[in-house]
Design brief:
Layout lengths: L5 E6 L9 E5 L2 E5 L18 E5 L4 E5 L2 E2 L6 E2 L2 E5 L2 E9 L4 E10 L4 E5 L15 E5 L2 E5 L2 E2 L8 E3 L5 E3 L2 E5 L4 E5 L13 E5 L2 E9 L2 E10 L4 E2 L13 E2 L2 E4 L4 E9 L4 E9 L4 E5 L13 E4 L4 E5 L18 E6 L5 H11 L1 H4 L8 H13 L1
Parallel strand pairs: 6-11
Antiparallel strand pairs: 1-30, 2-3, 3-4, 4-5, 7-9, 8-9, 9-10, 10-11, 12-13, 13-17, 14-16, 15-16, 17-18, 19-20, 20-21, 21-22, 23-25, 24-25, 25-26, 26-27, 28-29, 29-30
Length: 379
């Protein structure tokens, strides 16, 4: 069985960046943090907590005005999650203080004000870390793994250099009570790792790859977020993707996860694309060559819920190589992993031939008319 994947590329009107975070909310992608310089200064010393929104229908970027306590913070390498009407930013590297963080900040989408979330007194606060992954389930946010100094945890921690190392802890943040707890899941847990990628699919939190010591792995696991049980290393069908770190993983339509790019054991930046069938556990390499530089590491990927995956940012050259050759990704890569809906096909047809349908626009529902007009404005 063979598969193909269509793709397109759109030039970004915002600052290119890496080590940032992206969250999908409706038809918009919310992006914040990350390194924005043409020369990468380890780790991420140039990034301000600017908040951008990308409208996937109009193909427009907008810088949002925010206030509150971290409007001028510098942050990279962490994760973000949207729960109801609030955006949460967790851990990451705080360059203002030149150290990794275990703080939580929240942004109210109504007031657009940031605030520092103070955990409850009985919280089991995670160690300071970056390069971890995040899952969500209802009002709870899960973080897994990462790299940083040792801290209080029941899970495994492996020291690298006397100061920092890898862990395989799961910490859960309850957004209703502001309480952290360490989850000791049942089953066989993955080994410690960092710079791995995760994706929430239904009630499962998937994780693929990442670095542990001198190995960049290609194993895939999931945590059942209801029973709090690890799957163990999933036995897969087909040729596996090579081991990697700093890649992305996202949902891709019904029953699929989409894996893209990363950094392999030979220190090469990757541009390969894979689909993982969560029903058959089959890995399928797909062909997808956008008309731009497509090698990416430390980028982000968001699922639209319509079978599209939006990949933005990252570096197209190794961050461990020459600074002069470092090149941030300046295009939004859009991968269509599933057949477009009939509505989407009709909108695209109308947008390509507005002179035929313009007279009928006033009769359309307001939401549909705005979608079409937004796409026409972006042409």
């Amino acid at each position: 069985m063979s598969y193909s994947l269509s793709s397109e590329s759109r030039y970004s009107e915002t600052k290119c960046r890496m080590a940032h975070a992206c969250v999908m909310r409706g038809s918009n992608i919310i992006m914040l943090g990350g390194d924005t310089e043409s020369e990468f200064t380890w780790p991420g010393k140039h990034s301000r907590m600017e908040l951008y929104i990308y409208n996937t229908e109009s193909d427009k970027w907008q810088l949002l005005e925010t206030g509150g306590c971290i409007d001028e913070s510098i942050w990279s390498g962490g994760c973000a999650a949207a729960v109801d009407e609030t955006l949460y930013v967790l851990c990451g590297f705080d360059s203002d203080n030149s150290e990794r963080s275990n703080s939580v900040y929240s942004l109210d989408f109504h007031t657009m004000k940031w605030q520092h979330v103070v955990p409850t007194f009985d919280s089991e606060i995670p160690s300071r870390r970056d390069k971890f992954c995040v899952w969500t389930n209802e009002k709870r946010i899960y973080i897994f793994g990462g790299f940083g100094p040792p801290g209080k945890m029941k899970s495994k921690f492996v020291l690298l250099d006397g100061f920092s190392g890898w862990n395989n802890s799961i910490h859960v943040f309850d957004t209703e009570s502001s309480r952290w707890s360490e989850l000791i899941a049942q089953g066989s847990s993955p080994c410690p790792r960092a710079a791995h990628a995760g994706a929430t699919y239904g009630k499962r939190g998937y994780v693929f790859g990442g670095r542990f010591q001198n190995t960049r792995m290609n194993d895939i696991h999931y945590l059942d977020l209801e029973t709090e049980t690890w799957s163990g290393c999933i036995e897969t069908v087909g040729i596996k993707p090579e081991g990697r770190s700093w890649h992305s993983l996202a949902c891709a339509g019904s029953s699929f996860l989409f894996l893209y790019g990363g950094f392999n054991t030979e220190n090469h930046i990757l541009d390969d694309a894979w689909l993982f069938n969560i029903v058959t556990c089959e890995w399928i390499q797909v062909l997808a060559r956008p008309p731009c530089i497509a090698t990416r590491m430390w980028h982000t990927a968001c699922s639209s819920g319509r079978g599209e995956v939006y990949v933005f940012g990252g570096s197209s050259a190794s961050i461990f190589g020459s600074k002069e050759t470092l090149q941030h990704g300046r295009h939004m890569l859009i991968f269509k992993c599933d057949a477009s809906s009939l509505l989407r096909l009709c909108i695209d047809f109308i947008v390509q031939r507005p002179f035929l349908f313009h007279q009928f626009f006033p009769a359309l529902p307001v939401g549909l008319r705005r979608q079409i007009e937004a796409q026409l404005e972006s042409l």
